[in-house]
Amino acid sequence: MSITTSTLTRAAGVSAALAGLIYIVIQFIHPSDVVASITTPMWVVVHLLSLSMAVLALIGLAGLYLSQVRQLGLLGLIGYLMFSFFFILQSAFNFAEALIAPLIADVAPQFAEDFVGLFGRYASQTDLGPLALVVPVGSALYIVGALIFGIAILRGRVLSRGAGILLIVAAVLTPVAGLLPHTVERLAAIPMGLALIWLGYSLWSARRSTATGLTEPAERSVTNASRTR
Questions:
Q1: Mind listing the pLDDT tens digit for each residue in 42-53?
Q2: Distance of CA 218 to CAs 5, 211, 214, 224, Å?
Q3: Model pTM?
Q4: Residue 143: is it exposed, middle or buried by C-beta count within 10 angstroms (0-12/13-18/19+)?
């Protein structure tokens, strides 16, 4: 199989869709952010899935941006960078949750629980120092980045407008959901996951159509030329 720009772009679309699917599934299988859960196999599995989701989202966002870089302009670049930095931050946090937190759960259980409970909005009993900034910084990158990127997608008119609108809606719903209990707040990830799936499919189908449109005329030209000989 030859590696072409179209192939890589469609792969990025698949990555975005898979990231969205994993993001939704995780919300229903995520263990409680308590020390008793940290040392269980399920904890490691879920957070390795979260790490994979963040990496897939980074690949998907790169494809979504590069496929319409001229149309997105400066606004799209800002949204893309902010949203991508969130997933970079999340991948680092998920790595620590999956592979470091279980190792310190026995020797420093309170610190481990406070660390993994950052996004669960649990009151910290220990001084986490700069780590406490993970939540406000990550939330700002997630909400503002997704909002700006969604607006840029609408203005770009390359991918599905419905997917862009859903991305904006998901970003707006996130701070509203933050006012609800954490178990309910998790459901706000569903529209974001669906937006990533939709955007990924839109990118995959658009590049597939472009590739087909470029290939078929060439094939017809070759066939016609052979018939005239």
A1: 999 999 999 999
A2: 18, 11, 7, 10
A3: 0.86
A4: buried
